[in-house]
Structure formats: C-alpha cells, structure tokens
Specification:
about 160 residues; alpha+beta; Aminopeptidase; globular
C-alpha cells in the first residue's frame, strides 16, 4: 500500500476509509511513527490495535489503542505531513474512541509532547501522570518510551 498523498483528498467525502491495520501495513506504520518522532520500539512486543486512515490505496494516518482492562492508552496517533489540516486526526481519534467504547473501555489515557491543544479540542483533560490507572502506568510508553516531560491527558468514555 502506498503512503503518497493524494492532493484531491477531502476527509469529509466518502472516499475516506478507516480500517484496521494488517501485518503488511505495520512496516509503513513504523516508518510513519519514527518519521514523526513517536515511539515505535515496542510495537512488535505490545501489538496495539492500529486503525489506518486511507483514501483509496493511500495511507494517510494511523492511531492505536493499547488496552489495560477498563482503561486504554491512546497512542501513536499520527497523520502524514502532507495530509495534515484536513480533519484526519480528528476522524481517527473519534474512530478509536468508538472502538474503545464498543470494547468496554471506560477511560482513555494518552501522553503527548506536541498535541495538547488538539486533544483538548476532543475533550481530553490534563491529569497528573500518577492519576492514570496503574495498569496504564505500567506500559512501556509510560515507563520508558515517553519522556517525563510528556503531558498526560485522559477522557472518560462513560
């Protein structure tokens, strides 16, 4: 699958498909995350459930949930630079939230260094890292992959 931008893309039109990533997509997901400075070292071990934003054969973005009981870590939400500003991140985040609700997740938690305003617009609230559920705090993202300077945010899905 190609990840080259399709400049005629409009996320409000029906040509956008949000779908589950397959094993064949993961190499590209790794490259996209690493290119945006997001952690990808643990993906093979943790195997979070990725969703992809696609327009035809073009992959424009990705995001994942890492489940911990009734809580989940929303991680690795990224949109390729050429596709930003078109609502893709919002659509991916909302799709991940719907997936989490359907799976019985009650709280989503995330760490960010650059997207606090984006997630605030989606009703995520700042919390102290210590307020995140213990199981989420035990994740590699909390323990070692994200720096202590990363902002912690959460959203109740109740």
């Amino acid at each position: 699958m190609s990840h080259e931008p399709n400049h005629a893309f409009d996320p409000r039109r029906s040509n956008l498909l949000i779908r589950a990533a397959t094993a064949r997509d993961l190499e590209w997901v790794h490259a996209l995350l690493e290119g945006d400075g997001l952690p990808a070292n643990d993906l093979d071990a943790v195997r979070p459930g990725f969703l992809l934003a696609c327009a035809g054969t073009k992959i424009a973005g990705a995001g994942a949930l890492e489940r911990y009981g009734e809580a989940a870590l929303l991680r690795s939400l990224v949109v390729a630079a050429a596709w930003r500003g078109r609502g893709l991140g919002h659509r991916l985040a909302r799709s991940l939230e719907r997936q989490a609700r359907a799976a019985g997740v009650r709280t989503l938690v995330l760490l960010t260094e650059t997207a606090q305003e984006f997630f605030a617009r989606l009703d995520y609230q700042l919390i102290a890292r210590e307020q995140a559920p213990a199981a989420v705090r035990s994740s590699s993202e909390f323990r070692s992959l994200c720096p202590a300077s990363a902002i912690c945010m959460a959203k109740s899905l109740r």
